[in-house]
Structures are given as C-alpha cells and as structure tokens.
Amino acid sequence: MKKTKRLLALFLVLVLIIPAMFACGNTDATGNTPVDTTAAEDTTVADTTPVEVDPTLNGIPVENYTVVYSASGFDFNKRAAEYISNQIEILTGTAPKVVLDTEAEVTENEILVGITNRQESLGIDSVEDKTEGFEFLSVAKDDKILLYGNEYMIAGAAYNLIKEISEIKTVTISTEITVGEPVFEEAKNVILLIGDGMGFNSLKMGNEMYESGEYAKYALYSGKYPQPIIADLLPYKGQNYTHSYDNDVTDSAAGGTALATGYKTYNGVLGLDNNLNPVKNLTELAQELGKKTAVMTSDVKNGATPSSFSIHTITREDSDDILAEYEKVTFDYVVDSIFDPAVSLREVLDSFENAENGFFMMYEEGLIDKFSHNNNYRSFYTAYARLNSALRLFFEFMMYNPDTVLILTADHETGRVTLNEETGKHEFTYGDHTQVNVPLYGIGVGAEFIDGKTLDNTGVSKFVAQLMGVDDFGDPSLEQITDKTGLETMTEDEKALKDKEKEEAIKNYNKKN
Ligand SMILES: [Zn+2]
Q1: Residues that place a CB less than 5 A from ion ligand 1
Q2: Ligand 1 mean position to 399 CA, how many Å?
Q3: Residue 311, CB-side half-sphere exposure with 13 Å CA sphere
Q4: Mind listing the domains of the chain with CATH numbers?
Q5: Taking the complete model, does pTM exceed 0.85, yes or no?
Q6: 268 Cα to the center of ligand 1, angstroms
Q7: Per-residue pLDDT tens digits for 207-265
Q8: Structural contact between residues 245 and 265, judged by C-beta atoms closer than 8 angstroms
Q9: I need a labelling partner for 411 at 20 to 30 A (CA). Which of 10, 52, 266, 323 fits?
C-alpha cells in the first residue's frame, strides 16, 4: 500500500512538477500566460497611473471567497486561513470571512485550508502522502480551491497562493493537483537553534523513541499532537568539532562561547577569549547591524549557552555576577525557562516579522544536556520534542518569510549515545560530555555552504556572521572557517602549557577587574 502511494507520488512529481519547471516564468498554475497589466503604461506619457486589475481566483474576485479551515492541522491551518484573509484585505481592502469548517454552512466560492469537512476535500487526504518534506499542493474542484500541506507546510501553500494573487492578479488554480515547494530568498533573518548536548546519535535515539510510540505522553501536546522528529528534514547537513581551548571535551560555556564569538576559550569561561578579554558575540554583532535581537532558552538565562550569547565573564559558576552582567544587555528579547515554544517563540517572531533589517535569534533547547547527564529517557524526550516543536514554528515562519535562514547545531554531545547491537536501539552509555562531532544542519539561502562540510565550532560562528554579511568575525588567526583548529586529543604537555597560560590570564584578569 505504502509502495503504491510512493509510486503515485513519483508519478505526480513527473507529471506535475517537471512540466511546471519547464513552464516559463510568468505563467499561472494552468500554464496560461496572464494578461500583461503593465503594457498599457508604456503607450502614454500623461497617464502614469498603473492599470488596476482586481485580483481574481478562477474568475471570481478574491475577496468574494470565504476561507474555510480545518482543525485537523491544529493551529497551522487556522493561521494560514487568517494569513490569506489578511493579505487579501491588504490587496483589495476587503477581508474574506474566515470560518472553521464544522461551524459554518457550505457556501459558494470557498478556499479550503487543510482537509475540511467539505465534500470537495474528499479524496484529498489520499494525497497527504504525496507531499513529502517541504512540499504543498493546490487543486480546484468546482467553486472550491483546496490547499493542503502537512502541518506547517500549509503555510507554504497559503504564501504561494497570495504571491500568485499579488503578482499575477488573475490566478487560475488547475483542476489537477499542483505540487509546489518553497523558494527561499536572500536571507536577512538568521535563526540559530542550539540543542545543548545533542549529538548525531541523540537525534537517532529521539527518532527511535518517537517511532516506538512509548514516549508520546512525554512530548509536548501529548495525545493531540504527535511529534515526529523533523530535524532530519533540514536539507543541508554538515558537522562541527567541539573541543575547547584547553580541553578535548568542552563544557557548555567554552562551547557556547566558540559558537557565539568565534573564539576558543577555557572551559567555564563566558564570552572571553583565551587571554580572558571580552569578545563580541553574534547577538551584539546583529544589534550593531541594526537587526532585532533575541536570546531564548528553555533553561535559565544564566545557563552557559544563553550567557555566551549575551554577556562576558570569567566563570559560569557565579550566577550573581552573570545576572548583574545581564543588566547591561540591551537586546530586544531575553526569554528563559520556555516551556512551550508555541507560545513564547511565536510572540517574538510576530514582533520581528516586519523588522526593516531583519533579526538574529538564538534559541537553545537546554534540557537535552541536563537529562542526558541523568540518562533520563523520558525527560530527554520531553526536551527533544520541544526542540522539534520549536523547529515546526521556525519552518512555518520561514514559509511566510522566505528571507530567513535557519541553522541547527549543538555545543557538544552528552551521554555518549551509542547503538546497542543487541536491542538495535540507541542508548545512553555515559553521564557526561563527549568530544564527538555534532550536527550542523541548515535551511534557507546561504545554508548550502555547510553541506557535507566539517567546521570548527568557531567556524560555525564565523559562518553565521557571514550569513549576516560580515566576513571578518571571530578570531582573525583562524582564517578558514572550515579549519580544524586544534588536536582532537591533546598531549599531557600541551595540557600543562594551556594550564599555565590560563593561570597567567587569570592573574591579568583579576588585576583589571
Ligand atoms: Zn552538560
């Protein structure tokens, strides 16, 4: 059965997408060339008013539609319906009514968002499996326009429809299913998502836990919201080294500092280089560039990762000092103890949506590390599901704001998650951090750079700065961002040398502070 669906999907790709790829630029969904609305302007010098064409969808003025959404796609369908109505209001001055399918009578001319209870939606559920990864679809049936996309991908379908309406004006949706994919644009918004303690095998273990079904109740929205692990959907995949300046195995302070500033430092140090001088972090850089800024975490803000992206001090242990340092921070948002990203993240993203110079946001899922230290599977899964939940929101945001790039990485792995050959499952085998490389994944324009590469953690920072248009961020002695900047295993002599260096640096630091 599954295989038949796959073949059908392949058939659809061949029949529907490939011809669409060859269709030339300015055509609508049926392949017809739309009326050129600009031609009239050139003929007369006096008349500079562009000819206004009332946007229509399959011949009907767009504002005459009712937008009907289904609760089956949770909030994603509802928000897509509201987006369509708001955008049509901007274009025409009239907002189409938005209704929940089960609460409104069937009327003429409806845009159906998700799989509604309208009879025209029948059969569309069989196409669910035809949209994989980052695909969505549209199809016309009689006086109904049907849009479908799995969860957050409905946003892609809604965005595409509005884009066509505003650009082409007279849009025709085909009676045959048209599959679409998002097209990302030059990024001005940068999202950095950090799973503290999340290694490649943590991802695999999380997937297995989801598939087993045993852990569903420990996920956010348990029961009504299954949480497939979607981190693997990110199209560009690389990895990064994690060691700190003085240790093969980093802690979250040195790891966070490398990711945030592009400088290696000693374990325990926040936002200072190996001479213990303060170094600029990506959030401060973004602020200088006139971007909106947010540091967000599910952990406390004086945790090592958010602190690395916010403040500069010698030790992660002194939380009074850290909190005092936070008093100086002027970012737009510092939000900690996030329980439900669906609430906390959306609020911030909404407020950033129209930021002129875009924004930089670092979001940390901090508890993957904590519960990997404890080898606590249930709580690990809760944290991991929350990271995926954040990812869903980011994906949805990117559908509406394709000038956004997202990078997912980790500061280090925790728990030495290993495949147990006997059970065929991944398990914790250790209670601390390890030195293995960690995932570096991405989506959006610019993220293709990391595909197949191994970066140093300082290189990740330099790369993220490049995404914001800055080429000389971080330690200038580390020129190539793909350079490996240290030995994977330090010798005793090397360690002794670093210890001496650290002692000296602390002396100088104490003199100054
Ligand atoms: Zn840890």
Answers
A1: 369
A2: 33
A3: 26
A4: 16-180 (3.30.379.10), 190-512 (3.40.720.10)
A5: yes
A6: 11
A7: 999 889 888 888 875 444 556 778 888 999 999 999 999 999 999 999 999 999 999 99
A8: yes
A9: 323
